[in-house]
Amino acid sequence: MRTCPTHSAMKVASGSGDKAGFFTQGRWWLKALPVKFKAKIVGMARNIKKLGQEDPRRVVHSLKVGLALTLVSTTLYYPDQVYKNFGSDAIWAVMTVVLVFEFSVGATLGRGLNRVMATLLAGGLGIGAHYLAKLSGHIGEPILLVFLIFLQATISTFFRFFPKVKARYDYGVLIFIMTFSMITVSGFRDGHIFDIAQRRLSTVSIGSVACVIVSIVVFPVWAGEDLHNLIALNIEKLGNSLEGFGDEYFEKTGGEESKDDKKFLEGYKSVLNSNSSEESLANFAAWEPGHGRFPFRHPWKLYLKVGTLARECAYRIEALNGCLNADIQVSSEVSTIIQEACTNTSLESGKALKELALAIKIMVPPSSADSHIENAKSAAKNLKSLLKSGIWEDIDLLKVIPGVTVASILIDVVRCTEKISESIYELASKAQFKSVEPTLSPKKLHSGQNQSIKSAQLDNGPDVGINVRELTLPSPPSENSSAPKASKQRMGV
Amino acid sequence: MRTCPTHSAMKVASGSGDKAGFFTQGRWWLKALPVKFKAKIVGMARNIKKLGQEDPRRVVHSLKVGLALTLVSTTLYYPDQVYKNFGSDAIWAVMTVVLVFEFSVGATLGRGLNRVMATLLAGGLGIGAHYLAKLSGHIGEPILLVFLIFLQATISTFFRFFPKVKARYDYGVLIFIMTFSMITVSGFRDGHIFDIAQRRLSTVSIGSVACVIVSIVVFPVWAGEDLHNLIALNIEKLGNSLEGFGDEYFEKTGGEESKDDKKFLEGYKSVLNSNSSEESLANFAAWEPGHGRFPFRHPWKLYLKVGTLARECAYRIEALNGCLNADIQVSSEVSTIIQEACTNTSLESGKALKELALAIKIMVPPSSADSHIENAKSAAKNLKSLLKSGIWEDIDLLKVIPGVTVASILIDVVRCTEKISESIYELASKAQFKSVEPTLSPKKLHSGQNQSIKSAQLDNGPDVGINVRELTLPSPPSENSSAPKASKQRMGV
């Protein structure tokens, strides 16, 4: 059988054309590869640098995990005497370190305590289950054991859905299920169930204790302090947004465009979604012992209340921001009437919020904000009476609307600011914040503090959960003596 | 030495008084104990019932965990032949089940794949590290091993801070650190490092596969479906809030108080904070294979976009709600002028949002919402021209303000609704939603769907992360054949 010569020639030609195309493409791809690879590497290096610079505590945390792991594995594996004691169960200590070591002391302590207590409880119950099963004979034993494993796993898993359990004991319940199952099934094959349980408990305890010690001793990161700083920072962001709002709004109507300047926008936006990080920080903080300026049982829950009110204020600022980007802007004739009162209201409530943030930060009652709140209230009153006055009769209502909307939101913002102030007064009284002593002039303190708050804010990115950097504020003179030491340690971070 | 008799007598008397007080207190406490205990038990039982009723899938999930754990432990521990193969390493399969089994298929698959891949990678690298260390002699070996453990733990921990890694591979990195450390240190004591790594990999794989199979086969919970329903439900809640707003606002000014009726408030409030649950559901959904109405690579990220726009709309509704609770309410003369236009605007945008929710729910392009959006837009236009008209000249501006504020927020809400509609059109085109075929009259479909959406909403509590109950919608006729089977399975839940 012969094929048509022209047809086969065509086939070859088209085939070689495809091949040539494939090769050129392949060559191009190969040539591009090092360039692409280099770009990837450079991009990644830049990302790593950025992550580290945003919060150097991340680098320290990584080193701490390495240290704890190295400590535990060298102590339990290399000395022959110790290894004889624990045998291959030493691996549980290593595992514990990896699973328990968290970013903050509170999270690490919470996980460590959960793990140890759950292992203890599950070990005890597992031994009980083992002896109970032994009583039911050779055939009954495995059946009863399987039934008990099924029962405890089902019940415990359901308990994990309770909001309170989920918030604080989720990891413990998980470890309980695991340890109970392991002890009961191991016991079926290996008679020395008591030894198994005891060795597991001691290795888990060693691992947990090592984590907690490294976490507390080497540049500790306190969730409580992070929560404290996060709330203060959030309120300060709101203050900054408000302070800038008046000028931004009325300058814009004056013709100047400043859409590129997004900093003003970004400030309050991170407050809108900080709910979940606040809650988890408060949960971790509840595990922490007293540290620095915070005693044990510091009222962490009140911070959540302040945070919620701050978020409500942020919703108002979001509405103001909507006015900033609206199609219809305030007309110049309206602007001349309300500009001063609006700018004053937003400026004064912004200042009040910043003073409130500062009061939290340095832990004094927020009395320095009172005058600004009074000013804001009188500016709002002024604004109201302006709206009431007869000067509007000649102006078209549609032209008045944007200005009136802004004015009424601002009046609402003043109300929010008052509420925030009240909640901070409550916090100050429950947490026994002390007034600044007269030896340090308030003005000097404020300017110094403001600077450090500002520098901290510049360093902070949007990922607040792990990003709220420790502020190295000069501790106020009424502090206890351990504070300077702690802040010195932190300064090294 | 004698003491003064009167003095000692006084002491005794006061002492016995104290004692008597203590005993009465103690007795009272003991008497109260059973009552308190009973109250606690009853309260707990009520809580358990409530949790189960809110989402029966929680009960099913608990049973599934029990089932998977029982399956794995009976298969690996009881048959002698199998136990001979794995020995005490069988415990790793049990551990895997406890740590990998999650509420949704996506989360389980993600954790399982992370665990298996990380074990494989870490096992390989651990063996490599072991042979490298062997080369460096008897003294160099432990030093090099410790150094390698420290290095990998530090680097890997730092990688966990990358947002992308944190979102999808966090668990994998954790398991990588753990397995690498375990293989390297075990290898130092136990020469059979290859066996260790291989047994660990196979037990971990068995455990993961068991989890995935049970998770998919027994009443599967799909994170993707939950995300889909959550977004639809959120938009529907916004729609309900808006639909009711007009009547609520103007009736209130008419004198009727309805502060007790908080349902209207609660609807949109859960949308404000649903950001984190939406994100985690989208992350889990990305792991899921095609299921029911959702093919593999369904555009889950677009749901997040719709969710963000819905949240922006919720901020506006929060502002409207502020007007509802404001001190100064709209006056009756203003009310008569704008009531109709305002009520129409909120009613029509509410209806539009509910139609949009329905379109997502039944996966059709949201064209049924178009007419409502047009109505809302013309109502808003009407509102604007009312504001522009001359009827305001005789009324005091301060009286006009509340009404004008509500009107301008409502005009903004219409803009938000339009944006949401656009994003849902984008979703519909990317996800290839098909139009409803004419065999089923749209009216009939709508009423049926509305009912099931409503009943689902009644069942749902605020904890949306795990609470968005599967809706057993009759699948539209254009569905593929697997859908009815899936929905049948779900109906049994």
UniProtKB/TrEMBL annotation, chains A, B:
The keyword Transport applies. It is found in: Membrane. One of its GO terms (cellular component) is membrane. Its main location: membrane. GO terms for biological process: malate transport; monoatomic ion transmembrane transport. It comes from the Eukaryota. The keyword Transmembrane applies. Belongs to the aromatic acid exporter (TC 2.A.85) family. PANTHER family: ALUMINUM-ACTIVATED MALATE TRANSPORTER 10. This is Aluminum activated malate transporter family protein. It comes from Populus tomentosa (Chinese white poplar).
